[in-house]
Amino acid sequence: MSLLELKNVSKIYGTLRALDHVNMRVEAGEWVSIMGPSGSGKSTMMNIIGCLDKASEGEVLLDGTLICAETADRLTEIRRDKIGLIFQQFHLIQYLTAVENVMVAQYYHSMPDEKEALEALARVGLKDRAHHLPSQMSGGEQQRVCVARALINYPKILLADEPTGNLDEANERIVVELFKKLHEEGTTLIIVTHDPEVAEVAQRTVVLRDGRLVKETVNENFTGVMKHRKVE
Amino acid sequence: MIAASLMRRRSRILVALLAIVVGATVLSGLVTIYVDVPRQMGAEFRNYGANMIFLPAGGDQPYTTQTVSEALAMIGEERLVGAAPYRYEIMQIHEQPIETAGTDMAGAMRTSPYWYVNGSWPDESGEMLAGREIAELLALSVGDTVTMVYKSEEDTADARGVVESPEMEMTVTGIMESGGSEEGYVYISMEDMVALCGQEGRLDVTELSVSGERDALIRLSEEIAAAQPGIAPRLVKRVTESEATVLTKLQALVLLVTSVVLILTMICVATTMTAVVTERRREIGLRKALGASDKGVAAEFMGEGFILGAAGGLIGVVLGFLFAQAVSMQVFSASITFQLWLVPLTVFASVLVTGLASFWPVKSASKVDAALVLKGE
């Protein structure tokens, strides 16, 4: 059984079909990129997979649970237990340090544990920056704190929405390297991006256009390593 | 972690706390003044003279210094500002009949604080206080010595046909002005009155200055009348009624001001709390995305509001007392009593106002769509 399965999923806002009969499977341990232009339905799909929104039609199976039939409270529980979220805008709490931001996710999941939170920051190479505030960190460092926060509760799926959208090339490379490492450790990754160079690092890329899944490519030469960009 | 995060948000926390402290201070201060006004005004009114008098009830019932002392004991030292027993007799000075009052000078000073004495009050036997009219009639000045003679019908002539009447040399220690009928009397000590006229223990009237509201004074006079049948207590209506009227109006005014200020403060606290919660909508969205339930988010923010309310209330009680103390010193020149029951009342009111002020913005914020907020919409 697939870890995630979307069957004929549609999301309708009034007369607009943000997602239109989308079918997709993601296996455990897989690294999938979702691409598409603005307004293609990427974020809508992310929100549905991340239990932040519900599909209007179709079925979504996450780890054997039919999440489209669940209540809002139950979706919150599922998101807390099974999903790790990474955002383009980082969304760190500005008055909390890096380690405290990680501990917030622990607090809602089980119990804050500073030692474990420090270990998570060490995994993303930020052990020395653990007690810094977000305002004292670079964009790349803030995004790595988000990765640590997303990983702290050992989620089934790591969902990242444009994780490199606000980063320079050097930090983009660091974050993608981090994803590769997590993938090697067995983490299932779903990355939404409109950057082809970030997308093609994944094992598989699906392309959305006008709410429809129009293309699916498998990276035969998957290495998880990002190619160097051409300097123009 | 919580303490550190509160410290890092201290500027925001302080803004909210300041709004609550101002509200709690105003509430606590004005309620203190409202409660203390009757006591302060009562003390103020006591400067306008006696508000109760003891008259003889008539009949065979005794009305003496002994029965009056027992009645005064019923009033108690706390409420009794002063009591002046009076006995009136006609004395002769320079061959002229003069209305003379024997009294307790210390008591008269307290029941008639508005008397202006040029010179000093008598404090020894053989000294007297002359009312301004008498002083003018007899051309008396402070320091003059006169012979006071008591003539009664019982006086009898001796063998030589000379009538021996009791007399005493009296020194004028002060001339009294009150602007009233009191200026037509001479005042001597009760001991000198007894020495001249005999009949120890006899009294005509007792003037009292008692602190308390009108209803309490009415109850007190009824209790005294029941316990001492020889005494007929009467309230000086022009004083007690005026006191009651002024107090009622003053308390109504303070209550009105308190209510208006309290409503304005509530609006201020509500606006501040709304702003504080609204600016954290994105954070609320994030917390929900990380797995916080609506109730969990609401409980967290309301809990923070309650803690702020309680802290603001406690600080407000202290500042409110200082505020009331300053007002009391300025207006009444007297210190105010700390009302312990105001502590729980103010803290409860602060927590309630903060809770009400936070409830709707927190409820609204806890319903936000995490996906939309995180997208920045």
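Chain B touches chain A through 23 residues (CB under 8 Å).
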